[in-house]
Amino acid sequence: MKKLLISACVAAALAGCGGSAPTAQQSPRAMARMGNLAAARSATSPDTPADAGSERVAQGGAPGSKALANGKMVLAYYSGYTNNYSSLTKYYANVNAVAIDFWNITPAGAVVGNGDPTPTNAITFLKSKGIAIYGCISNVSDTSPDGWDPAVSHAVTGAKRAATVANLVSFAKTNGFAGINIDFEAVDQADRKNLSDFAAALATALHAQGMKLIMTVPAFSATDENDIHNLAFDLQALGQAADYIQVMTYDETIPAWDAGPVAGSDWMENALDYATSKAPAAKVLNGIPAYGYDWIGEGDGSQLYWRNVPALLTKYGVTPKYDNNVNAISFSYTVGGRKHTVWNENARSVTLKTSLVSAYGLAGTSIYAFGMEDASFWSAVNAGLNK
């Protein structure tokens, strides 16, 4: 749904009326979504400080949200970030699945480490808590200047497909994982059918062993589905094959570009509109970032974790602005005569974006990533999932 329509309908909802658009033009899903957006936006008044919340978060007891109790997936990524293990052991009760992001695939289809030590402590901990583990597999290689290697995805989805599928199933089974999360990026557009056929073959093989497949895909909409970076991802075919489609609704803006929102709600909703038009909503996960970026200028940005934002605000005595158009915060500060511009999330924006799980009838949500967040982040996640 386009941003202008959403804005008009939310404004009408906040005003206490149904809006001027004919009801026949709005599907039940769209009307429910707008109701949730209105509730999320009105939950925090414009005068509320745009910093992290302080609600109590589940830490080892009962599930932190109704979403878990109702069988929704709350997936968090475990990558090589500082404090990842500490966050996992504190906040594990807020998730029911974790993607361990420490493995790559070779052109021959062999599963290899990504250079970091295998996080055996995290795997052991998750198994002790009965939390589903998905081995996250990437097409990253040392020979590609960008890391993501289209030559690798071309080989393993094509000529080496059978060997790759066999190796991935063996890898997941040997490690006692719930399944595999395929995170292939920069896939050549010519490999669109190969990627779909690969997903179908891998899903069939995993299902035969009682395991599941998550396919991670970029966030895009009908306006850019034929973009060179998106064309390889046939969401209809992937949605038929995989158990879950994890839409990366983060990194709308990256450090290599000019400053902007990292996960604008308008951009996120357009991507979800498209994804759920192609794949069953009950298979789709929307991604929520626990980070933003800090830019000095165009092409000169760095990652800023959620947990580090409050200290930065205090240090420089700044108050962030909440942008109602994209539902994100931004602020500026100056160091050594150089102006910094920050875009990030706060409790209000995360609550709103996780409420889209209910609004769209999604399978659940995915969080990137352990180690970037604090208790207030999980409180906001749960507040949105409980809507």
Task: Write the topology of this structure.
Blueprint: H1 3-14, H2 28-43, H3 66-69, E1 73-78, H4 84-91, E2 97-105, E3 111-113, H5 120-128, E4 132-138, H6 150-157, H7 161-175, E5 179-183, H8 192-208, E6 212-218, H9 235-241, E7 244-248, H10 265-278, E8 284-289, E9 291-297, E10 300-305, H11 309-316, E11 321-323, E12 328-335, E13 338-344, H12 347-354, H13 356-360, E14 364-368, H14 375-385
Parallel strand pairs: 1-2, 1-14, 2-4, 4-5, 5-6, 6-7, 7-8, 8-14
Antiparallel strand pairs: 2-3, 9-10, 9-13, 11-12, 12-13
Helix pairs in contact: 1-2, 2-12, 6-8, 7-8, 8-9, 12-14
List the defining traits of the structure above.
alpha/beta, TIM Barrel, eight-stranded parallel β-barrel, five-stranded antiparallel β-sheet
Report what the structure shows.
This protein is of the alpha/beta class and 387 residues long. The protein has 2 domains: 3-43; 66-291 and 348-385, TIM Barrel (Alpha-Beta Barrel). Helices cover 37% and strands 22% of the residues. It is built from 14 helices and 14 strands. The protein has helices at 3-14, 28-43, 66-69, 84-91, 120-128, 150-157, 161-175, 192-208, 235-241, 265-278, 309-316, 347-354, 356-360, 375-385; strands at 73-78, 97-105, 111-113, 132-138, 179-183, 212-218, 244-248, 284-289, 291-297, 300-305, 321-323, 328-335, 338-344, 364-368. An 8-stranded parallel beta barrel has the order 1-2-4-5-6-7-8-14, surrounded by 7 helices. It has a 5-stranded antiparallel beta sheet with strand order 10-9-13-12-11, with no helix packed on it. α7 runs parallel beside α8. The two termini are 20 Å apart. The model is unreliable at 1-57 (pLDDT under 50).
